[in-house]
Amino acid sequence: MSEKKDLFANKSKNWDINNKRVQGAKKIANSIIKNIRLDKNMHIMDFGAGTGLLSYFLSNSVGKITAIDISASMLNVFREKSHLFNCDIDILELDLIKNPPNLLFDGIVSSMTLHHIKDISALFEKIYNLLPNGGFIAIADLYRENGTFHSDNSGVFHFGFDIEELKKTVQKVGFKKIQFETVNTISKPNRDFHVFLMTATK
Length: 202
Prior knowledge:
Number of strands: 7
Helix content: 25-40%
Strand order of the largest sheet: 3-2-1-4-5-7-6
C-alpha cells in the first residue's frame, strides 16, 4: 500500500466534498449491511480507510472500527471527524502487507482501494490471517476498465478487475462463499464505470 501514500497527500482536504464519492460510499455500505449480518459486538477493519466515508456509514451497525491507511493526511481528516461516528474508532497508519496489526477482526471492509495494491495475492493472504474462522470480507472496487477512470494513473496497478480472475485469487487463499454484486455506477464524461462488492467468508 506504500505506493498510495504520496499520491493522496494533497487530496485529503477536499476528499469528502465530492458528493458522488460520498453517495458511492453510502451505496457500498448499504450493500454490506444487506449482505452481512453485522452487530454491535463486531470489531471490523476498514483498510484503505481514507477519510472514513465507508466507516461512517457502517458505524451504526458495528461496535468498533479499526481504520487502516498509509496516508497520514487522509487519516488526519478521519481523526478530526471521528467523534461523529456511532461506534468506537481506532486509527492506524500502516502498510497492511508489510506491517499487519497483531489483531483479529470479525470482518474486513474496503472501498476503492484494491486497484492501488500491486500484489493482490499477498494482500488477501494477510487479510485471511487477520480473520477468525467465519470472519468475512466485503471489498468494493471497479470492474475491469480501460485505464480512463483516473485522469492520472500514478499509483494505479490495476485497471479494475475481471471478477472471475479475482475470484480465483481469493479462492486460492482459502476464502469461501464468494459472491459479487454491482453496487454503484460512476458516470464520467468519457463513460460509465461500474463498481462491484465482493463478499466472502473464511
